Amino acid sequence: MDEELKKLYQLQQLDLELDELDDRGGELPTEVDALKKRGEALKNAAATEEKKLRELRKSRTDTHAEMQALTERKRTLNDRLRTVRNNREYDATTTEIEAADAEEQRLARFLVMLDTQEATIIKDIDTLSRQRDEAVREHEEKSSVMATIRETNSDEIAALKEKKAEMLGHVAPDLLRKYNHIRNAYADAVVKVRKGACSGCFRALPPQVLVQMRRGEQLFTCQHCHRIVVLEELVAPPPVATE
Ligand SMILES: [Zn+2]
């Protein structure tokens, strides 16, 4: 039993290393994903602003055309004013000229407003583009770090898996099944007994179990957490004697 338990413990060390390699990227994949989404959102926001800018410029062109038409109309009205034949015509033309003036002023105010809006939109597009460039750059950097980690890991993982496959041949299928079952609950399915206690849950093992364990004939599990327990001296090199 002891030899098998030793092998199982070694197998577990490989599994723990594999677990760690899996986790090595840490938060990186989540960050890379978030940066990608951020870049896309900023791009969409900039596109929306650019559409607004195009519409605004079209509106300005239209307004300029309206202004020009209005200037033409005022010239005609002023010409007419010089050739009116009576007061009624004079009043009517004057009213029209006043209306044209008011319209001209309204359009002028509208153009000023468009200029202000345009400046704001251009500034927003600039900010959004810079933020997007930053997100793209950060995404590229972190993606490349992630790729490097994955590449490095893949070699280590392959080596560990090879060792593990070899180790599997030395452990009885029953024991392996039990180990894998416990591993669903705890990464460390096999734990050392330290000072008479399970080092997984730190609860004491009954003294008679400790006695029986030393005979090395049976498999024991912790009655509290159900991890497989092994004697420390079995899996660790004997401690250096100290005075
Ligand atoms: Zn325990």
Small-molecule binders here are:
zinc ion
SS field, number of helical segments? 6
What count of domains describes the coordinates?
Answer: 2
Find the CATH topology of the largest domain: Helix Hairpins
Oligomerization state of this entry? single chain
* Structural class designation: mainly alpha
Order of helices and strands: HHHHEEHEEH
Distance from N terminus to C terminus (CA atoms, Å) equals: 33 Å
The main pleated sheet reads as: 4 strands, mixed
The CATH class of the largest domain, by name, is Mainly Alpha
Describe the structure.
By secondary structure, this protein is mainly α. The chain has 2 domains: 22-167, Orthogonal Bundle (Helix Hairpins), CATH 1.10.287.1490; 172-235, no CATH class. It contains 6 helices and 4 strands; from the N terminus they run ααααββαββα. Strands 2-1-4-3 form a 4-stranded mixed β-sheet. The model has no long low-confidence stretch (mean pLDDT 93). Zinc ion (ZN) binds next to loops. Zinc ion binds next to loops.
